[in-house]
Structure formats: structure tokens, C-alpha cells
């Protein structure tokens, strides 16, 4: 796309979804959505943290320490879902030679890895009061750790290959192999953990979580989603500018930036 | 054609006996380090043996990966091998087989010596060898994929490790778990069946993925 | 160009990109029996990429390629395994490409490029020029009507070998084959046609 695109009118429903397969249009759309996303993330996070730390009841066995789960659980969910999203967009990019889809996958990867790290750190914080050590080989934590290595493998591969024409499909293939393996890895790690009677971190006893706990979890999850969208869109815009820097619309944009 | 390819691979491997011997040498050397680091108590060594030997087998089989396709890419013979109408799938399968024959099999044959060093009982050792027999081909297939993905890249060897190790966790768990189960008096059938299932899955899916990776690498 | 010559390779509206740069667009190439075409262009103009794309080693971004003849490709590098002897390498190439692999034919091909005395030496022990000739030796095996895509075949060759290769290319074309080659040297009288690549549209 080497012409300046005028952003489509928001009220026009005739635009098809794959209009945004053009980097220039995605750039414009993401730019418009970003302020709202950041606000949403901040608002939801504030609400969620309030619910988590002030409104949710104290756990019978774990006391106050369990509250870290309101960060750990959404982070873990997101780390998993973002890996699926990464594999999905990378596969679309490979199958349809859609540059924007591959770019999106690349934008997702660091955020997914980041959430995995948050899940690991918060998991360690959770385990510390219960087990007295900063790391326990809990099945879920160990799976998270392996997921982190899967993310790092993807990032290392796509950054090691200079030519995006080769990097994008290679990354897509690796991500797909990874996605297929994630259930296998998770199953084997669970097997390994039960076999060796390893430590386990979870909420004990209560068959049903208190309603406020669930609310807090839901809000925190949504906050993480909004944050993830915001960060990924920001990164995607940066990647678009970098990749399309020879195109006319990018150069016109930079000239406009220099003029103001 | 398949036999022609396999013949070529094996002949090339035999012309470089040092390359084929290095993983075994690494295995023996590294296996000596654990007793030195952890102490020579026989009971501790016997308990550690399956896990340690499995991890070392995993690492040793990864050592020789970077040269799997790199040499062919560098001297230009990879182009000839992938020229249409030749099948990339067949090349990937033959490369994996040749890699296992020249690296996995020697590892397997060196295991009794290591079992001796660690004071393993003969039935545990036998099971360890069976688990390696079922597991190391999967590792060769995984390594094959990684080598094709990282073809020609500067940090190929380290990248291969980063790519293969997470994916090989299930094989490692079931492989060393089988021997652990035997020593705990638990049934081992589950472990062995899962290893076999992983091998079948790898045989079905990985050569095709490797073929795709090879075509991508030629872009 | 005789209209009666069968078309061995035809490419329409080919477009190739490398590293984000468009090397050429809407390029059409046709190789008929008897053609010897000299692919010209400065460094980086996409000659190697075009040859590789025509050979089927890499996909074209746009366009289609059809061929009715067997394709032989020789790249910049020789495609020789350093640990195999010249004869072993040639025998593998012959079998791999489905050409005559009996000892007489192999020896004949080696003789064409003066490599018979070195047939039991490993490729790593040959000089650069000898290695290039060893790589070219498979072209001297009987193969009527094939389409040859050669990237810098005259590289590192001495004058005698250049003459031998020119003779081989001419006889191959005369027997109904076609050749598309790149070369930095000017070889008068060899090429029947030239194909310039100027980066962008031809």
C-alpha cells in the first residue's frame, strides 16, 4: 500500500475485516483505539485491584497471602491465550502471505512472554508463604516455565533471521509446533508432578470461590486483556513503521511529524 | 532414491568418524562429572542414574545438530537435494534416520558402560536402554526440525537447544520416569506406551514440518 | 528463433522480492530448444534469484512457471561434498538426476573436463578450477533435451576449460536442449540471445 489511506468512517459497516490487513489502515485503526484501550486498562486494573485487596474475603487457610492469585491467575491465563493468538496470527500470515498477520504475531510475543514472567514471579510469591522457598516445582508453574522457553525460542528465531520473508514463515512453523505440543507438555508435566509427589500451589478446600473473589478475578482478567491489547497495538504500530519505512505513507507521516 | 540418500549420509558420516564419536565422548565425560560433583555414594548415584543419563543423552544428541544441514547448505549440495521434483519430506526423514544411526545408536550402545559407572541394576539398565531406544529417535526428529529452521543462522547451535529442549520435555519425563517407576515398584507400561505414542506422532508429523522448514530456509 | 522449436521453459509475469526489495517485476522468460541465453545484469540485480526461482528452489511472489523438460541447476557453489571423491560425487549426481550411471559414461564425462586422473581424489583436495569442473561434469553425461540453468558456470575456469564448456553448451543446444546462464565474461559467439535484468521492470 503506497498511498495515503484515509481512515474509514467508523459508522460505515461496509468495510470488511480484511481491510485492516493493509498495514497503513491497521496503523490508523490502532492509533484511534489506543487511548481508549489505555483508559480501559487503567480503570479496570484500579477496580480489580481494589476488589482483590480490599473487598475479597480472607482465605481460611492461606490468610492474606493468597491475594497474589488475583495477579497470578489472569497472568497465567493470558500467557496461554496469547500463545494461541500468536500461533493463530502467525499461521494466517504464513497461509495467506499476509504481512500484517505475521507482524501482529511478532507484536504479541514479547507481551505473552512478559505475562508468563509475571505468572512465574507471582507464583513464586504465592508459594513462598506456603512452602518457605521461592520456587516449587508445581505442575502449573513448571508448565509456565516451559511456556516461557517456547516464547523465547520463537523470539530468538524470528530475530535471528534477517529477512522477514523467511523469518515470518519460520516463526509460524515453530509456533504451530509449539501450540500442538503445549497440551502434551502440560500433560506430561502433570504426570511427572503427581508421580514424584511434588509441591502444589492452589487454593485449598473451598469447593466454590466466594463471589467477590470471582468478580475480582474477572475484572483483573479483563484489565490484563485491555492492557495486552494496548501494548500489542503500540508495538505493532512500531513494527509497521519499521517494516514499511520505504513506503510513501510512512515517509509522508514522518515529514508531517518533522513539520510540527 | 531413499536408499541412495541414506547411503550418501552414512558414507559421509563414516568419513568423519570424529564427528560421530564426539557425542559419545561428551556423554562419557559428562557422566563422570556428576559423581565428582555430588559425591560417590552408590545409593545416591543409583537413584540419580536414570535422570542424569537421560538428560545427558538428550544434550548429547543435540550436540551434532547444527551440522545436519549446515554443511550441505554451505557447499551448495542442499540445492541439488531439494531441486524439484525431489521430495523435501524424504530428505528430512533420511536425515533424521541417518542422524539417529550415527549418533543415537552409539549413545545407546555406550549406555551399559555408564550404567556400570552408576551401579545400576541390570533390569533398570535394560529398561533404561529400552526407553532410550524408544525416545532417542523422537529427539533426532525434533532436532532435525530445529536444524532446518535455524539453517545458516549464526547462533544456530544455541538456538537449536532453545528450540528443542522445551519440546523434548515429554520424552524426557516418560523416558526417565519409566526407570523411576520400575525402581518404585510401579508398572512401566504406561511410560513405555506413551514414549511409543510420542515416537509415532513424531514420525507422522515432524518430517513434514521439517520439509516445510527446509523450503522456508531456501527463501 | 524458430517457431517450430518446442518451448522447454516458460515463465510469465514473474515477480521476485528479496529482503523487502523488489528485484524484478512482470518478467517473462521463454527458453526454446536450441536457445543459449546469456542472463545479464549488475551485481545484486537478481540474476541468481531468477535462476533459483526458475529451478523451483524458491517460490516467486507473482507469476507462473511451466516447464516441459528436465531442469538442471548449478549454483554459485559447486554442490560437491568435500569428503567424497570426484567419481563418487559424479556417480551420486548421475543416480540422483536419473542419468546414466555406468562406469563408462561417468568416465567419459570426467574426461570431457580433463578430470579422469583425479577421479579418486576427494573434492576437498582439488583446486578451485578443478572443483568447478567437477561440478560441471554431470552436464557432460548424456541428457538430451534438458533445460540448463547455470549460475556463473565459467567462474574460476582456465581458458581451455572455458572452451570445453562452450563446446558442451553448444552441442547440448544443438541436440535440442536449452541453456540460461550468467557470466561476467563476454563469450562471443556462444549466446544466441541476451536477457538483461536491470532491477525493476525489464
Topology of helices and strands:
The complex is a heterotrimer of chains A (260), B (219) and C (202).
Chain A: H1 23-55, H2 69-96, H3 99-131, H4 139-160, H5 164-195, H6 211-243, H7 248-259
Chain B: H1 2-15, H2 17-38, H3 42-63, H4 67-75, H5 77-82, H6 88-117, H7 122-149, H8 156-167, H9 169-183, H10 189-217
Chain C: E1 7-18, E2 21-32, E3 36-40, H1 47-55, E4 62-67, E5 71-74, H2 86-96, H3 103-112, H4 128-136, E6 147-150, H5 159-174, E7 178-182, E8 193-196
Parallel strand pairs in C: 3-7, 3-8, 5-6, 6-7
Antiparallel strand pairs in C: 1-2, 1-4
Care to give the gist of this entry?
The complex is a heterotrimer of chains A (260), B (219) and C (202). Chain B has one domain (2-217). Chain B has 10 helices and no strands.
Helix segment tally of chain C: 5
* Number of E-state strands of chain C: 8
Basic shape of chain B: globular
**Measured distance between first and last alpha carbons of chain C:** 20 Å
**Largest protein-protein interface:** A-B, 30 and 28 residues
**Spatial extent as radius of gyration of chain B:** 18 Å
Q: Would you write up a description of this structure?
A:
The complex is a heterotrimer of chains A (260), B (219) and C (202). By secondary structure, chain A is mostly helical. Chain A has one domain (36-259). Chain A has helices at 23-55, 69-96, 99-131, 139-160, 164-195, 211-243, 248-259. In chain A, helix 1 (23-55) runs antiparallel to helix 6 (211-243) and helix 2 packs across helix 5. In chain B, 85% of the residues lie in helices and 0% in strands. Chain B is mostly helical and 219 residues long. Chain B has one domain (2-217). In chain B, helix 3 (42-63) packs parallel to helix 7 (122-149), helix 7 packs antiparallel against helix 9 and helix 9 (169-183) runs antiparallel to helix 10 (189-217). Chain B has helices at 2-15, 17-38, 42-63, 67-75, 77-82, 88-117, 122-149, 156-167, 169-183, 189-217. Chain C is of the alpha/beta class. Chain C folds into 2 domains: 1-70 and 144-202, P-loop containing nucleotide triphosphate hydrolases (Rossmann fold, 3-Layer(aba) Sandwich), CATH 3.40.50.300; 77-142. In chain C, strands 5-6-7-3-8 form a 5-stranded parallel β-sheet, sandwiched between helices. In chain C, a hairpin with a 2-residue loop joins strand 1 (7-18) and strand 2 (21-32). In chain C, 39% of the residues are buried.
